[in-house]
């Protein structure tokens, strides 16, 4: 018996009957030999962690464009906070931590440079639209490893695709990540907004603080405990009605006071213009794209979709550098 097989057997004796068991995975699109050490979801987690798309998250905007300080969240630190929240919940509920972590680490791989501003630009320019959750799946299925993809299991891809509010994952582990994403970004964005002097704790409505807590730590504690308490020994991941409503109202408060705030979003007009110009440039000069992308077009890929793939994969810094290369005279470029 291999180490992997012993670990799979151990799952049946330690995890909840509602957990997604590794040996019961629906599997991969392309069959491949099993690892003798790692169950399938642990292997997926490792593939995501070692991917180029994951490394690029460290230089992609979360909310604040070009923040003045080293302690503001990036897309990578957001992803790690989602993963930590999700693993805490999964461990308490005896669900599959490997699956939870793989989904959490992969859920935002498809985010564009400059955060949701970049997503809005590509959604307008790309025929058929652009959504970062769908792009995350496209990355792990097609774009990583020079067109081979990561060949992840169905359960991980389902969790990545359905982590947003409008859809629902098929596994409890995916539903944990769906909640954990919101818990993470609402609370760390408050923390960053306070650091940026856009908010104070006292600006948060009193009735929401009375339910959720008066600090980031208290709110995280309330939300995570509430999910665990209400989901224990159930075939669902749920919150109590009052806490869920308070979290949704806090999210609405953040949209009004932070996500649309001119101090946080003042540079977005420039970022959108930058990406629009890059899109137009590559549509006129497709042979400027790297070989992987020109090969995709040669094999029947639509040009606008391929250009969006390339731009979406850029970091903030790389997109800015390419804009400078194409549109700023060399004598005026910043070294």
Task: Explain this structure.
By secondary structure, the chain is mostly helical. 62% of the residues lie in helices and 0% in strands. It has helices at residues 3-14, 40-49, 52-56, 75-93, 97-106, 115-125, 132-147, 154-161, 172-195, 206-212, 216-231, 241-259, 262-265, 268-284, 291-298, 303-312, 316-327. Helix 4 (75-93) packs across helix 9 and helix 14 (268-284) packs across helix 17 (316-327). The radius of gyration is 21 Å and the shape is flat. 41% of the residues are buried.
Task: Write a brief structural summary.
The protein has 17 helices and no strands. The protein has 335 residues and is mainly alpha-helical.
Shape: flat
- What percent of residues are in strands? under 5%
List SSEs in N-to-C order.
HHHHHHHHHHHHHHHHH
Q: What is the count of helical runs?
A: 17
**Helix content range:** 55-70%
Mean pLDDT: 94
Write down the Rg: 21 Å
The largest sheet, given as strand count, sense and whether it forms a barrel, is: none
Gap from first CA to last CA: 58 Å
**Total number of beta strands:** 0
How would you summarize the topology of this molecule?
Elements lengths: L2 H12 L25 H10 L2 H5 L18 H19 L3 H10 L8 H11 L6 H16 L6 H8 L10 H24 L10 H7 L3 H16 L9 H19 L2 H4 L2 H17 L6 H8 L4 H10 L3 H12 L8
Helix pairs in contact: 2-5, 4-5, 4-9, 4-11, 5-8, 5-9, 6-14, 8-9, 9-11, 9-12, 10-12, 14-16, 14-17, 15-16
Task: Sum up the structure in keywords.
single chain; 335 residues; 62% helix
